[in-house]
Structure formats: C-alpha cells, structure tokens
Amino acid sequence: MRYMANFAYGDSCRSGTDKYVIAQFRSDADLDWVSQLRAFFQKDELKYKHFQPERHRVQSKPELWKKLVKGIWQAEITIIDPKPYEEHAYWELVDQQAIPGYDFNNKTIKEISSRTMIEWSPLARIGALSLDWLVGQTESKDVTVGGLHRRAGGKRHDAIVLAARSHAMLTPSEMSEILSLFMNGVSAIPSNRMKDVDRLARIFDNEHKPSLPILNDLVDQVAYLVGAKGPEQKRESVREMSSREADHLQAADMAAGWAVDVLGYTNGDYRTLAAQFAWVGVNGVVIPG
After folding, report:
1. Dist CA 173 CA 179 (whole Å)
2. Which tens digit of pLDDT belongs to each residue from 127-159?
3. 8 A C-beta contact, residue 50 and residue 253
C-alpha cells in the first residue's frame, strides 16, 4: 500500500486572482532540463521570471522544449483558492441573519475565511484526532484553529501558506488512509510505518519560517496517530532552504510560475491545468486530468 507520496521539494507563486500555488517535485525526479535551461539562459539560478519573456527562444529549440514540457509535467500542483472560503463565510453569516455592511464587512469575511482554510486543511483535521499527543509535549502548544493561525503569524497570507503547505504534504487519499488506520486501531499498522511517515518530509523555498514548527508538529502527530513513534520523539522533517542550493526548488519555481500562467490564459480552468501536470489539487480536491 502506498502511504505517503515521496515528494520532498516545493516552491510557490501567487496568481493575479489571489490563488496561491505550490509546485512540488519528487526527490527522484528527472531534472536534467534544469541545468540545461540554466546554461541556455546563462544564469546561476533558474527562475520562471527569466524563462517567461524568453519562452519563444526555448520553443525554437525542439529538443530542449520537449525536455522542459516533460520535466514540468512531473510536478504536483497544490492550490489554495481563497474565493470559495470567502463565499462560504459570507453565506454562513447571511444564514445567521447577519446584515452585510452592518453586522459584517469584507474584513470580517477575510478573518473567518482565513480560519476556515486552516480548519478544513489536513493540519486541523489531524490535530483534532491527536489531542492526546499534547500529553507528551514539554511545552504548551495552542492547537486550536485560532491558535494555529496566531502561531503562523495571524494574517490572511499566513493562513493561506499554512493551509497550502499542509495540503501539499497530505493528499486527500492519504488523509483517508490515515483516518482508516486510526479508526481500525494501531494494531493493524505495519511495524515499518516510520519509513512511510518519513516521506512527509519537505524542503520548501525560503518564504514562511513560522509555519515550520507547526508543520513539523503535523508530522509528529501523524506518526503518533499511526503508531510509528511516541509523542516524546521529535524530528525536523520540514524545513526551508534557498532555491539557489537545489535544482528541485528551481524546478518547482518554474512549475509554479507555469501553473499560474496556465490559470491566467485559461481564466482559471483547472481541468486544462491538470492535463499539464502529474497531479493537481485545489482546496483539498483532486482535479482529474
């Protein structure tokens, strides 16, 4: 049974419509095209912003273009689209007889939707199952939705990044497997489960350090839930580094920028996007390719 997808490196990009896109590559991805593009552009670091205005030049080199398209396809794309969360917050308030512009405003909507992003993410869902994990912690941690948001920074962008990164670490099918294992009891879990939990490890590009201890807690909580280790055992499974140090992160920058451009010229057509990547998920929903 495949338990955790072996993804290790991710980078992000924002769209003009406020969507937040994370692209990830497996540690064993074929990335020869990254060094070839760097050489083509005569750059020390490959960035989508370098590629975009020179796209036609790469297309004029059939072999290089073929390798690029094939290489980009390997990426897993995770998207947080704030609009559905905001619409849900709006109609929930209206259903409670609240009057727009009088009882609530746009700021209220953004505050509520920010918390909902976290509440509906794997981060909060796993946390709700593993409250007894806190017993083994030496320091006090607020694992409520509001607490997680505050620990991440408390702003809307902090909620988006935190939710997106947790979705990027656990796909819907993997969440279902965890829930199934939890419901069936740890006696049904193979003894080598720690090896599978290790696959939750991520290296993200430098962007949001406050999310790292929270996401490392998520790894520990998953390990505890599936009986792989006790609450006293800790590892730094999620970290950040400069994209200059890793071809995988440069590839992720390219894939994230590519995905944002596709969303732009298709007016947000997720099906078209899914046809160009190995996997696409939006707000925790898998989009068929």
Report:
1. 10
2. 877 777 777 676 778 888 999 999 999 999 999
3. no
Average pLDDT over residues 84-95: 97
Is residue 24 within 8 A of residue 203, CB to CB? The reply is no
Strand partners, 7: 26
What is the secondary structure of 185-213 as a DSSP string?
Answer: -GGGS-TTHHHHHGGG-EEEESS-TTHHH
Residue 154 region, left (φ>0) first, then alpha (ψ -120 to 50), else beta?
Answer: left
What is the spatial distance between Cα 111 and Cα 107, in angstroms, rounded to a whole number? 6
**Which of 37, 70, 67 lies closest to 247, judged by CA?**
37
Residue 231 identity: P
Burial class (CB in 10 A: 0-12, 13-18, 19+), 76: buried
Q: What's the CA gap between 152 and 47, in Å, rounded?
A: 27
φ/ψ (deg, to 5) at 7: -95, 145
Amino acid identity, position 115: R
Angle subtended at Cα 256 by Cα 255 and Cα 257, rounded to the nearest 5 degrees: 90
Alpha-carbon span 163 to 155, nearest angstrom: 13
Helix locations, the chain, DSSP H? 32-41, 48-51, 55-59, 62-73, 82-95, 106-119, 122-129, 145-152, 156-169, 172-184, 193-197, 211-225, 247-265, 270-274
Which of these, 129, 130, 209, lies nearest to 165 by C-alpha position? 209
Six-digit token string for 118: 């976290």
Q: How far is the C-alpha of 73 from the C-alpha of 172, rounded, in Å?
A: 20
Q: Please say whether the beta carbons of 77 and 277 come within 8 A.
A: yes
| Average per-residue pLDDT for the chain | 88
